Amino acid sequence: MRVFLRLCISLIGFSCIISAHASKGIDWQLTESGDLFDIARTYQKQAELPDEVTLILQANDVHVADNHVTEHVKKIWFYPNARDVENDGDHSIYYNEKIERLTLLSIASMNSLGEVKSMDPSVIQVLDTDNSRSFSDSKKVVLTIPGLAGGSLSIIEYKLIRDLSKQESDWSKIHFTQWGYPADQFNLSINWPASKQLFWSSNSSDVMCKAEENQLLCSGSDIPAFKNDNNIYWRDHIGQIAIGELQNWQQVIDTSKDAMNKALSDTTGADELVQSITADSPSIDEKISKIHEFVARDIRYVSISELGHTITPHDVASVIKNRYGDCKDKSMLLNELLRRIGINSYPVLVATDRSAPEELLIPTLGYFNHVVICFDRQSQQHCLDATNQDTYWLYTPSWIQNTVTLPLVNSKQPSILANSLYRWQLNASTQITFNRDGGQSEDQKRQFIGEYASSMKNILLSRTEEERETWLTNQYHDKVTSLSEPEFDVINLSEMAPQLVINSRAKIKPFLDSSANLEYEENDAWLIDELNSMRLQNKHYDEHFTGLKLHTEYLYDTKGIWKITRTPPVLNFKYNFGSLRRQIELTPSKKLIVTTDIEIPEQQIKKNQLEAFNRFLDLLKQESMIRFNGLLLKTSHKSKT
């Protein structure tokens, strides 16, 4: 599908490296002996070893106490050859340095001779995983294991101790039971005191679980590799076991509402701010637009999810004063300002990496990593993302459409955030004037609408003016023609507007014989480009098509050089996936107008229909060719000679 669709689904951020000595909450107690090394040596002595990367052992032992949780993790991976080491030899551990203590017990390799090399603590890298579109306080510890080579094993053992007294939300844990490669053995043991009540659920067909009093034991062997795919949220499909403290979703709503409402402890400055933002906006719609644009653009994103503010926003007054905040701070400011103009808005939690509510196995806040503000207006729900600087408020940002949400409204359940019927909307008009030397003058206008406008703005605004011109020129040469050097004019680029317009003008070098009858053909360039980018790519699962609405118009003016004698056919093609309609007009002034409309609404394409859908797109492309003939007019020929 469209390459930069995923800029709306991929999380934009940066990583900063912290030295081992500066990292908080990490202890080293490395050893090169014990049961894990005994298992590894026994494995290396096998007569036959696998020919693909294999997880030999994954063992998690979890002890839940009244005020802390201890998780002891053991892993052994096997790499058949050097290429596997290059591709899959890197490992990492995620932890929250504010409320967790990480103890590294074994980070080592073992070669085929049983020789062991341990990681040097001085080479540790700790990366910040935070980004402007999620609330997260986790760190990524990169394990650079020395000595890995073909036929070797990686041995990883560590403990994580979480202080529950410092945790703002409920405790839960998701244990995945599949990986990108097969696993020989998976063991999971979780126990808890009688004073606690925990709830668990599993969707794994490869791992069997048995619940006893205050204990859960799960195990599986010979587990096949997870079949990933090109366009899925893999967490919707992979095997997993979930355990947590909460019994229903209302508990998640209550906990989250209590945290979010703490932003209202001080709202000093909100009235004055609303007045200054909306003073020149007479209508409610204009006020909504101005408020959203202010919060998205004028409140700078700063990651400040410090202890006590992982899910709890800072108060509105401090965000107004400082002009910065993280995603939940910005969202609650947006919510408060909207309410002051009479909009009954409410926060909505978003799980940006999931699209199947039924696969949320237990009620927990842990699934959700983002928050937006929603409200109903004129019988339609609108959801505004306070971190999105490019999407006009009437459109839901593409990157959160079709994701799982939980409105912080009593009695609500997880559901899908509504999809636009047509996420990608484009109107393209082209006026082509023939000249007597066999060349053309071309004037083109592309109008991107809604989410598509936002995506194009993101692409163009990430570049300098010179880089934008180069990018647009390269795109034109690739999609339209390389016979000209177009000039561009971009309208509404810096505005938070519902549309983006790209105008271009080009002089196309001579390529026609203007002394002979005309036989002309060209592809509907932007139609071809859109259909190529919309092809579905999954092999194992259903795939979500996000919707395309395309209108193109070509106006051809032969300037009296030829009289058009044969025009393209009129088309009216309808199928269960969508439709194509082409209309032809020959005006009294002898200009030819070719208009084409394609409408393919948002839909879920079943696995067994993926090939049929792509054949449907191919058929539409075949009909994109514009062909017509013209009779050379004698007056034109004489004037040239």
UniProtKB/TrEMBL annotation:
It comes from the Bacteria. Residues 1-22 form the signal peptide. Gene3D superfamilies: 2.60.40.3140, 3.10.620.30. Residues 272-349 form the Transglutaminase-like domain. Residues 82-204 form the DUF3857 domain. Keywords: Signal. Pfam families: DUF3857, Transglut_core. This is DUF3857 domain-containing protein. It comes from Photobacterium chitinilyticum. The lineage of its organism: Bacteria, Pseudomonadati, Pseudomonadota, Gammaproteobacteria, Vibrionales.
